[in-house]
Amino acid sequence: MSDIETAPPSASAFHLMAKPSGPACNLDCTYCFYLEKEALFPKRETRRMSPEVLEAYIRNTIAATPAHLSVLFPWQGGEPTLLGIPFYQRALELQRQYGAGRKIENSFQTNGTLIDEDWAKFLAENGFLVGLSLDGPAEIHDRYRRYRSGAPSHHLVMAALERLQRHGANYNVLACVDAHSSQQPLAVYRFLKEHGVEFIQFTPVVERLADKDYAGKGFDLEGPGGGTAELAEFTVAPGDWGRFLATVFEDWRKTDVGRVFIMNFEWSLAGLMNQPGVVCVHQKECGRALTVEHNGDVYSCDHFTYPEYKLGNLTTDGLAAMIDSTRQQEFGKAKHETLPGQCKSCAHLELCWGGCPKHRFLTTKDGEAGLNYLCEGYMHYLDHVTPWLKTLAALLRAGRDPALVMRMQAPLA
Fold first, then answer.
1. Is 302 labeled as catalytic in the residue annotation?
2. Nearest to residue 24, comparing CAs of 3, 5, 49, 6?
């Protein structure tokens, strides 16, 4: 037996996102923070996870997952469909080989442009949870999500959505909220509803242009730290992000409770009720959501895929040891330990926890570093929704239908 197979599992649950195609993608989305990660790899290196790395990923992940938990395999990119169906058929074979009957779950984040009938059938039949990137109607989606030639992608994504629905795939939609789409919250939300989407996650687009240090390393966008870098033109404004969420929440609260499920609201409600399921962005600590590149390199987080956050490689280092290393634990604890005083005294602290550390590049009103760029937006959103979330929580605790909130003119006292 190898050392990996005999090593103890990780101390608790973790999430190791695989990028089997690395930064390779068939689209050239303007706001993508991952295309530039080509700078991490030799130019002539194939952007494809080798059979050896694939096996190491499957074997390590199963061995490192505590026995009482499901084993999670999130596939992302770049664009994961570039590897073709046979690659994932082999992944499933390896999961059965090393899983020894354990419960295994696969998820798959895709831009959808290559999802044909065969792909839709494969994903549905094998129980993949498919995350489809769709920003709204064509005028919004195609503004930033295009091919290198400038050709639009919206019509292909809509065709993929129809195929996934028709084949009965388990799917949700990931909609990025940028400087443009943030001005049209109801247009985005109602478009998705009209096309039968029931599970939605909204993600804010926040990027800065690389300073001399990061540009010298081959990056176009700025990494973590410092607030001096210039914001990218597509970055959503903090207030617009908050108003977007609050506006969608009000429409959802009046018409769609129990019919449409918006992850951002689910996370806030779970946090209010002290329940699991809150995304790492709004947890007290992070560090349990890592990423592995096509060559086996493991990084602290998808948003921290930079040389200084590399933990090791799956082919040479034990996964559980990397996850539970002092270095990674310190990375996770820093999310809470470096919170500025303004955050610690905030009424919404336990629903926000300072947001993603990568976005904490502003200073507080007292001049303290570490304030989240989106703070103003989170404040607006949480000020608006918290009374209603408390009402939903009260209904749930009383065993009543949360859809009753749609009939209410005001939240419960």
1. yes
2. 49
Beta-sheet strands, E only, within 123-216 = 129-133, 170-177, 199-204
Residue indicated by tokens 């494809």: 48
What pLDDT is stored for residue 356 in this prediction?
Answer: 96
Q: Return the residue matching tokens 């210039």.
A: 230
CA torsion sign, 280 to 227 to 345 to 245? negative
In DSSP terms, 177 is beta-bridged to: 204
Whether the bond between 84 and the residue before it is cis, its omega within 30 degrees of 0, is: no
d(CA 271, CA 143): 34
Distance between CA atoms of 89 and 97, rounded to whole angstroms? 12
Find how far residue 220's CA is from the centre of its chain: 21
pLDDT value, residue 413: 65
Nearest CA to 201 among 245, 246, 160, 155?
245
Residue from 237, 245, 221 nearest 389 by CA: 245
Segment (H or E) for 105: strand 104-110
Q: What is the pLDDT of residues 69-128, one digit of tens each?
A: 999 999 999 999 999 999 999 999 999 999 999 999 999 999 999 999 999 999 999 999
C-alpha 134/C-alpha 372 separation (Å) is: 26
Set 302, 317, 383, 401: catalytic member: 302
